[in-house]
Amino acid sequence: MKAKPRSLLGIEPLDSRQILEILTLAKRMNPARPRTTLRGRRIALLFYENSTRTRTSFEIAAKSLGASTVVIHATTASIEKGESLKDTGQTLQSIVDAIVIRHPSSGAPILLSRLIEIPIINAGDGMHAHPSQALLDAFTILDHKKSMKGLKIVTIGDIFHSRVARSDAHLFSKLGARVVFCGPDVLLPQSALELAPGVEIVRDMEEAIRGADVVMMLRVQQERLSGMQINVDEYIRRYQLTAARLKLAKKDAIVMHPGPMIRGMEMTDEVADCKQSVVLEQVLNGVKVRMAILATLLGGKR
Amino acid sequence: MSTILLQGGHLVDPASGFDKPADVVLRDGRVEEIAEPGKAKATPDETLNVKGLIVAPGFIDLHVHLREPGQTHKESIATGTAAAAAGGFTSLCAMPNTRPINDSPAVTRWMQDEERGAVVNVFPIAAATLGSLGEKLSDYRGLKRAGAVALSDDGKPILDDHVMREALALAAKVGLPVIQHAEDTKISQGNPMNEGATSFKLGLRGQPSASEWQMVERDIRLTSQEGGRLHVAHVSTAKSLDMVRLGRASKVNVTAEVTPHHFLFTEESCANYDTRYKMNPPLRSAADRAAMLAGLVDGTIDAIATDHAPHALFEKEVEFDKAAFGITGLEIALAAAITELHHTGKVSLSRIVELLSTNPAKIVGLTGRGTLAVGSIADVTIFDPKKRWTYDVAQTRSRSRNCPYGGMQFYGKVRVTIVGGKVVFSEL
Lengths: 302, 428
Description:
The structure holds two protein chains of two kinds.
Chain A: H1 16-27, E1 42-47, H2 53-64, E2 68-73, H3 77-80, H4 85-93, E3 98-103, H5 108-115, E4 120-125, H6 131-144, E5 152-156, H7 163-174, E6 178-182, E7 199-201, H8 205-209, E8 214-217, H9 232-239, H10 243-246, E9 254-256, H11 269-272, H12 279-298
Parallel strand pairs in A: 1-2, 1-3, 3-4, 5-6, 5-8, 6-7, 8-9
Helix pairs in contact in A: 1-6, 1-12, 2-12, 4-5, 6-7, 6-12
Chain B: E1 3-7, E2 10-13, E3 18-21, E4 23-27, E5 30-35, E6 46-49, E7 54-57, E8 59-64, H1 77-86, E9 89-94, H2 105-112, E10 121-126, H3 140-146, E11 150-152, H4 161-174, E12 178-180, H5 185-188, E13 193-194, H6 197-202, E14 206-207, H7 210-226, E15 230-232, H8 238-249, E16 254-258, H9 260-264, H10 286-298, E17 303-304, H11 313-316, H12 333-342, H13 349-363, E18 380-390, E19 409-419, E20 422-426
């Protein structure tokens, strides 16, 4: 038996049993009914990148479990003065019980976990991983579908820059879904095929979406393009989710988006607001799943 | 100066076609005599029993970063050359990316001053352009007179076609090779690793192999037009080697070196964001590594050079994309070559000596070195090709420990290093 993990660095190290345990626990979590599981625990939210959704979600989750939180932004004095991640981590270690970290550099949480002893929860690192988002995506899917096995889950758009797409693919693959990526060459290199077992690439959006159970739309991360050229009109023409395209998916297909969503770019208003869209459920589920993550990693004896 | 007899060893000197047991006499800094075992005429002051060991011309590293002047928190000429001696290198060609950049005869001379405390020979490679900015050529004649053996903007490529043309033409006139770090930075964008499935998985931006081979292709084309000698530093992609082969086939004067890490490892070593595997050029694909091994066997690659690039812990123990490029390697180069190339039956020991001594001496024109023919300079490396050992990076003589070799098992250990007839390292 694997040792119980104390850190959540990515989806890759987890097995399907550990994943399902968190998802099962999340069903019992509700921010409106606070618990005392983590009373007296101090959690640092170390955010080197701006984030509204994830930071708020983790903060509410931690507080709903009775923990106290402190938010540290990249603009914090010591970090702006050039303090290394190692020193910031070692400093925090002496005063908090766990660190939730968001960082623009891929692998930063893994580095931090090698340098300090307390649990590290990855709240998104560069283009690498966003495990809590993947868990909440899976939770949302399982809210609508009996099982992940055999589902066709299509992710469309800027896969290359997306830590969500990577973590989702690992998770969906571990639970037995078909993971179909769709996007233009520059945003979806062929090497994505080797990401996880069961990953497929379909370049044509109509073909990709046909018969899908889940359609996950991604934002084009303009801020990370670094020189890549995207023709917006062309992109919209080929990859925007419209009502007509959505009709190609299964009747009961759900539409997801990790946010922030740009209406008129990756999807039309009509689709964003349609009944099949579960974008707002994802947000509420995010708090429940993060409560389950924190309770699993930090709950129990000290 | 004393007379030393190296007794009972096996002499491997590809330059003179020698590969058999022989006793070697060194006197006054030169090779005095090569004799059949037990038949040396000289009366030595000192006899080294080197039975069972290989006696080879001293190794020459075409590519090291000694960090002095300016960055002695990483390395100094004294510490770097001490590590070199332990690795069997009797001569180092020192890259110019120091602080200040070595683009002047004054810095070139300063680096060779006795005051620096070098224990092996240091031959500066001077910057090909002022400040290595890739714009204006430095003073090639003055640099050569000051002792520079080659020109390079290593770490940075000369991107501008016109400047590269001028550099090749002037270097040809002066009689120095141009060493190019082949990387089209417009394509590679300084990205931290090779582009491929591993970089995608890690969410790191990659350097496509085209950023290297397209530059090699251009440089060979320019060399064929301007003449002169081009040496391709740390080749890392299969396609770059194809370009070298094509260039040679059309009689272009081009040579190439490979580092131990590019024939030992692949990009997959980066899988856990381990910055000890971050260097430039980056570790490439398994196919590229296989091509490096093939090139070492078939002769396309002329030399093994370490690209010894020391960095302090605080420059490496950071986020992968922010970590400094480069690893140390002086102390394990021979062992890496023997373990990966000879122990596996791919090449002879004579070929390894060729890669580490004979050919590097020719590439930078070190007359009297790279051979142990009678009359040549008494730079000698004596090693045990069968010795199995584990590298302990904590014991390194370098000031830095940024390499992944700690704890690795190797075959082949340097036993004695002699520079100009003087023993500078001994584990006899």
